[in-house]
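Box 3.1 A note on notation
Throughout this textbook, protein chains are presented in two layers. The first layer is the amino acid sequence; the second is a token string describing backbone geometry. Keep the layers aligned when reading.
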Amino acid sequence: MPSSARLPGRRRRCFALLAQLVAVVVAVGAAVTVIAEGPGGHPGADRLAADEIRTPPPLVAGPLHPSAEPSPSAAVPSSLPPVLRVPGAVPSAGTGRFGYHPRSGPVLGRAGELRRYRVAVESGSGADAAEFAQAVQVALAGPGSWVDSGRLRLQQVPGAAPRDFTVYLATARTAGRMCAEGGVDIRIGGRPYTSCRAPGQVIINLDRWRLSVPHFVSAGVPLTVYRTYVVNHEVGHQLGHRHERCPGAGRPAPVMMQQTLFLNGCRVNPWPYLNGRRYTGPAL
């Protein structure tokens, strides 16, 4: 039989094979959709796996000598272990006087009331005001921060500018005094341990800023995660939010839970908003 007479049959077989192939691809795609979204084909409201909780940019262990040139591999953050705590002694007391970061920051958030804050670091703490201001901005910018409500904007302003509150980084002794003056006792075992919020003051304890807390460190939680948590927790108090409890074992801890002291079966979480929605626990 001439080759021209065999062409229609070949085409029919090719079309049949192609149709089978398309059916298989469609079926696989449907199966993947069901697996990804859960029963009913909609994302689960409580689907909050650990990898869905956004982690702040990590501090990484880099060269110890400040003038050392980073190697190509050292330039890739994922190739280096995250910092869990800053090594070295932490000053327990400073001068009691504060230096204010002199720059304005961007407006964080898309809509709502604008609240302005300034950033202050205690003299003698050994901390850098610009680095502290940047870490505070990362925590408050999100995604996942308080501004995700769409009803609040935040902006850092210079020290002398009108403001709604100040974020302080203070040595343990100064933090203890400032918190006590605001009616908050932050001592554990007789030593100022936690951070606090007093009227118009978000007071971050330098010990916690440098060392995190033992249960975060033992679990390998990066220091940046603790820092983001403590800023959002204390700013949450400034915004009027109270303490909350763990909503259930294995679930993310609400940001207003006292994660510095315990997790009670919850998982570490530094953000007040998860998956674009406000995440809370039962009132304490």
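The chain is about 30% helix and 15% strand. Confidence is low (pLDDT under 50) at residues 1-7, 14-19, 21-51, 61-77.
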